[in-house]
Amino acid sequence: MQHDQDMPRNLPGQYSTDLVAERSVEFLDSAIANGKPFFIGVAPIGPHSETIQGKFNPAVPADRHKDLFPGLKVPRAANFNPDKASGGGWIKTLAKLNQTVVDYLDNFYRKRIQSLQAVDDLINSIVDRLEQSPEVLENTYLIYTTDNGFHIGQHRLAPGKTCAIEEDINIPFVIRGPGVDKGRTVSIPTSHTDIVPTLFRLANIPLQAEFDGEPMPVTREQLRSTSRRSEHVNLEFWGDGILEGAYPGVGSGLAGSRGLNNTWKSVRIIGEGYDLAYVVWCTNEHELYDMLSDPVQMNNLYGASGIINGWDLSKLTPRIDGLLLTLKACKGQVCTRPWETLHPRGDVNSLRDAMRHEFDRFYLEQQEKVTFTACKNGYLAEFEGALQPVVYPGNLELREARWEDWT
């Protein structure tokens, strides 16, 4: 533990999350006393696993919470340890988990929930301190979010967080503050790249052109005035899949506690009448899920025949792939308005617009595809296939776009 320029201190026997809570309140005391605008970021270790010599053990709750929630188990959704293998890449090679492993996973889950109680206490301590200064509280935004989700047993997976599945990528973003409606829930696709632009707008700081995200509408006024937002979230990972706990699983795609060839790119698209998840693995395997009818991602529709939202899958998939290709190396506004990059005439602003029949030949025959030439444990452009899409020019003659025109 270290404060400003003080020497670091070792505090054996004290619970980390509680120490973070104490220091957070101390920083808050100083900030309030200073009388100037402030930003404080608080990042407790809970409910992360206890890591000892590279091994990930179940989280350690505070003593006061270690006996809570007896019998609590991982929710048994349809994708929990399913009878039929699911997912893509190395995940679909995993064997079904036996009862010993399932019991271990339930305990792993219970320890995480127990350790989260100290995080709740931390939040309470911050709010309690702000309530002692009402004039500060009424002019302060409090945000609760996280850097990733977590899976435990879904798709037969050992605990972890590095996969392109709903449990790993769908995270909370909760905000309280001036102009924010109490108890209101807003369902719009957002990502971490939107957080800084959101903070800038709340603080009345001009946005920077190089931002890859855009402000989230969080206040009552912003929600009323926001006319159009991105309908997509871009996701990617490079390297092996990290598996935690004592039982990494059994499967041909595993090497010890790591899932091999876990490099992937994915896009989530949410609009009126559709919610789609699309994944391209470095092995050039693909996944496509209709999240409205299959929220647990058990039915991979890639390559199948069928209809989603009135759209033929054989025509829908190339559009989504073209969107992902545009996003894979994007900068600035290309990341938030990729359809405008693909269709610079300005007549395509959503997947629905792109599904018009006039664009069938462009996407099916003439657009580049998202591909990899090898699986690497990092971003190496030479193995990433095409890095930029072909742009639709509005006539039958297609030309290749110049990346420098967009960035």
Please give the count of helices: 11
Helical percent range?
25-40%
Count of distinct strands: 15
| Oligomeric organization of the protein chains | single chain
What descriptors fit this protein?
alpha+beta; Alkaline_phosphatase_core_sf; globular; four-stranded antiparallel beta sheet; 407 residues; single chain; three-stranded antiparallel beta sheet
Question: What this model shows, in words?
Answer:
Residues 6-205 form the Sulfatase N-terminal domain. One of its GO terms (molecular function) is N-acetylglucosamine-6-sulfatase activity. Belongs to the sulfatase family. Pfam families: Sulfatase. InterPro entries: Alkaline_phosphatase_core_sf (IPR017850), Sulfatase_N (IPR000917). With 407 residues, the chain is of the alpha+beta class. It contains eleven helices and 15 strands. The chain has helices at 16-34, 99-131, 134-137, 166-169, 195-202, 220-225, 313-327, 333-336, 338-342, 351-354, 360-366, and strands at residues 50-52, 55-57, 142-145, 173-176, 232-237, 241-242, 254-255, 258-259, 264-271, 274-281, 286-290, 307-308, 311-312, 390-391, 399-400. Strands 5-9-10-11 form a four-stranded antiparallel β-sheet, covered by helices on one side. A three-stranded antiparallel β-sheet has the order 6-8-7, with no helix packed on it. A two-stranded antiparallel sheet has the order 1-2. Strand 7 (254-255) and strand 8 form a beta hairpin. Helix 1 (16-34) runs parallel beside helix 2 (99-131). The protein is globular, with a radius of gyration of 23 Å. Residues 395-403 have low confidence and may be disordered.
